[in-house]
Amino acid sequence: MNPSPPRDPSAPAIAPPQSYDPATDLATDLTASKDLHDPEGAVGGDRSSLGSLLAAAVRLGLQTQVERAEGLTVAIEGKTRQILSGTVPRVKLAARSVIYRGLHLGDVAIAGGPIRVAPKALLKGQPLQLLEAIAVDVHWRATAADLNQSLESPLFATALAEAIAPLGENLGGGALTDLALAIAPVGLELTGKLPQGRRVKLTTGLVVAAPNRLLLTAPTWTQWGDRGAETQPPLDDVPIPLADAEIDRLTLTDGAIACRGRLWIRP
Fold first, then answer.
1. CA 208 to CA 68: how far, in whole Å?
2. Which own/partner pairs from 121-124 qualify as long-range (CB within 8 Å, at least 24 positions apart)?
3. Which terminus of the chain faces fewer neighbouring Cβ atoms within 10 Å, N or C?
């Protein structure tokens, strides 16, 4: 690889609008669904048992998919006749400390619609099943602790290995062990050990290059050996394509990462 020009380490990896506070913004999303949900079954102004039935179906479907979702709230927007015809105009849901297939996702808020569903299945109390793919708006925030716990997940471990694979040739090959991730406003820091026991650290910026592509910027390896720490010149930026997802805004703070975007959910 050819070294890329050095970057100003004091420059933030992402420059969000001044008015954007990811923690406050997500807290608003996490309470919005609770405010909209009517436990008595009101759906878009129509009071019946259908709203509660549909909300229960959504919860049941989610609970069969996730290992944990604290404070799960569901809001249904639409008229009873619309839902009975098989269309839910809009669904909002939010949860904290979500765990899915070993991935510690942190706090998540999702909104999307219209959703095509099978009304007969809903009336039978079965989990909500999509009839076609939908795009949903997603707001997500996770901490460094969430990401480090996710390192135990094969899904995350594989994705991380694929992301840093183009950089590994500078280390002489071999998988890293004893991994740990840290998050700062200027980027990410990954530490680990090489097969021969040497400690290494990768520091990199993380930006949105395009809605469906992230970019590791100026990735730099530091190795510890007999002569102490040795830092290599920055390497070429590494693109990370996103499948079935788009990111509009990404923010790194001390110990946390937050983003807004869209996710395509398929039946």
1. 29
2. 121/57, 122/53, 122/54, 122/57, 122/83, 123/53
3. C
The encoded tokens of residue 100 equal: 């899915």
Q: Which residues of 228-263 are buried (b: 16+ CB within 10 A; e: fewer)?
A: eeeeeebbebbeeeeeebbbebbbbbeebbbbbbbb
- The identity of residue 242, as a single letter, is L
Is pLDDT above 50 for 19?
Answer: no
| Residue after which a domain boundary falls, among 115, 141, 167 | 141
Cα–Cα dist 85/50, whole Å: 12
Distance CA 34, CA 32 (A): 5
Q: Pull the structure tokens for residue 265.
A: 């959910």
SS3 category, 148: helix
What is the rounded CA–CA span in Å between residue 33 and residue 39?
12
- Domain span at residue 120 reads 22-141
Asked if residue 11 is part of any domain, the answer here is no
Question: Global pTM?
Answer: 0.78
pLDDT in tens, 38-73: 333 334 434 446 767 778 778 877 877 889 999 999
**14 inside domain:** no
Q: 121 and 188 in one domain?
A: no
Q: Is 154 exposed, middle or buried (0-12, 13-18, 19+ CB in 10 A)?
A: exposed
**More confident site: 265 or 49:** 265
Residues 130 and 174 in one domain: no
Measured between alpha carbons, how far is 257 from 140 in angstroms, rounded to an integer? 8
